[in-house]
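Standup notes, protein team

Yesterday: finished cleaning the Micromonospora maris set.
Today: Maltooligosyl trehalose synthase structure.
Blockers: none.

Input for Maltooligosyl trehalose synthase:
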Amino acid sequence: MTDTAGPVGATYRVQVRPDFDLDATAGLAGYLADLGVTHLYSAPLLTAAPGSTHGYDVVDHRQVNPELGGEPARQRLLRALRSVGLGLVVDIVPNHAGVAVPAANPAWWDVLRRGRDSAYANWFDIDWARGRLLLPVLAESPDALDALTIVDGELRYHEHRFPIADGTGDGSPREVHDRQHYELVCWRRGDAELTYRRFFAVSSLAGLRVEDPAVFAATHELILAWAANGEVDGIRVDHPDGLRDPAGYLARLRDAAPDTWLIVEKILEYGEELPAWPVDGTTGYDALAAVCGLFVDGDAEADFTALDTRLTGRATSWADLTHDTKLGAATRLLAAELTRLAALAPEVDPDAARAALAELAAAFPVYRGYPPDGVRHLANARAEAGRRRTDLTGALDAVTRRLRDPDDELARRFPQFTGAVMAKGVEDTAYYRWSRFVALNEVGGSPTHFGTLPGRFHRFAVARHDRWPTSMTTLSTHDTKRGEDVRARLAVLAELPQRWAQLVTGWMAAVPLPDAALAHLLWQTAVGAWPVERERLHAYAEKAAREAAVSTGWTDPDPAFEQAMHALVDAMYDDPAVSAELAAFAAEITPAGWSNSLGQKLIQLAMPGVPDTYQGTELWDNSLVDPDNRRPVDFGVRRELLARLDAGWRPAVDDTGAAKLLVVSRTLRARRDRPELFGDYQPMLVHGPAARHAVAFDRGGAVAVATRLPLRLAAEGGWRDTTLSLPVNQMSCLFTGRVYRDGRVRLADLLATYPVALLVPTT
């Protein structure tokens, strides 16, 4: 090892947070080096809202978060990383800042105090023309403002603190409040009436105007200083779709950090290409969808569609469902943003303008249109919106003409809106309503594309190698809807569609729930994560139901429905017949799930790109959606198992998860220590009766082989005489140590110990 890091070759994501701070992270340096990564990839490090468990609510861009240990702890982390040859990749948040605690954010506090005269008034995307800055913090009560007090020269509303403008502090708290540049309003008015752009529908995250060079400079000064000093090797840009001018922003960032590995959290829809930005690629959701789809049997699609129709009592169209959920997001959750957009089209009746813009956003096929494809996406959206709302022809034509002009203010703001509509309408709503087969309901995924055939995957990988060879690959992030191993086990259901239909029908009859789609989602989730702690499954059920917003919701929860929902979860543990059958079935499909897990992990780590390992996923991980996937990780267990592997132990594929750690560590070490073996990508032909069950490729010397559809493979008689021709006559498997000398290998021999193999030329 050297005391400096080389190029970013593989990353390990750590959710740095107050209860796992920078010093705790520094303690992982030796383990991560032994694992085989080249860089630590951290959650945001700048000062976030007090107590923040994620760091995406930055309140002060001038300093390292003191709750993480501050600058001294960052320096200790750097020394620890450098001592073992590791580098650092950091997460930055240019789109928004945290404003839930105004006193913690000096810029926001000054804007509240001085209004448009504040030196920071241009930092935030505020519509001052609509009057005072609305802050949705009051209880739902006509006399809520009676609770205002004045303490230490500040307005107080319970635990909330607000500044008082100079010369306005005389009189009662109500009188003082009425003189401020801001107005405290009921929390329910947030979605409909706010006068500042938010991150999605989160009123505690205010949009930043980084298109302003002064704002860019002030909010990026510290991060760019780290890059200039060689203290940061990579930057991950959070949510570029939310920016006014993503291409301009990324060009400025690239100019400021020309030698830094730069990736963007750009979620691409099925078949969508990353714009020609000056970046190294995305955070890997496109790879996640392609890799995970390999282990889903596409032949089962009709069975699951029929099951979904029978369970819910209706045939559900994904296109209609997502149109409705996106329209709901546009007109309710993002009503304030829609109102602001409609005001930019005064030539159109306000109600018609709102309806037309909402329909266009609901019909927009991607998160956001970028040149040159943006014009085509807009045309498609106009056609679909016109088909659905013939009564809006005039308004649709008028606003579409405006949206075609890239210099029009409406055209500049509308793309910020469509991204938020897609995220809230699809990721955060439709994915919880469409429960046909939830293994496909993943960020960057396409639930209507039921599986990925090997040929399509190879085309994807070849294109990736040619166009974006240093883009990130991933299987799990802090934003994924369920952990990678949960998805891998759920993929097994596609090999047993009739069996699954019989079981889940019986369970739903034994423990009925008025919302059949949600019930199906919960039963799939339980099978995929079992055994899962009861309290975790209760928390997941509540979040899923409220996100779906069909039978209950965040704003107005339905106590009776939620009681029935929690009773269903309890029955999974307490009903003897149901619990026994659930546990038995989960245990039955777990080995095939392990096979899928190892296969997708090997492919993700060995394919073109920079592979990321999300914290803890080097062992089996049954995490669900955030915040479940941010749970503490037992690194002591992982260190101990890795040491045993290095001492020569070759584990069985069992519940220790050590087999996955073997695959992860050996693949990452091979990429780090023998990079010349990973400079190309060639699909490999498998010959024989079970060829469809293997995925194999040559990375330029290293050959990866994985098993797909393991239950059908077994039912068809196993590998039999299926063979693979090797590129050189003598290769060894890094997982088993076995050497193969004749240039052709039987898969029954190669995959006898593990369902995966990584072969390299012997030295």
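Follow-up from PR in the comments: The longest helix spans residues 576-606.
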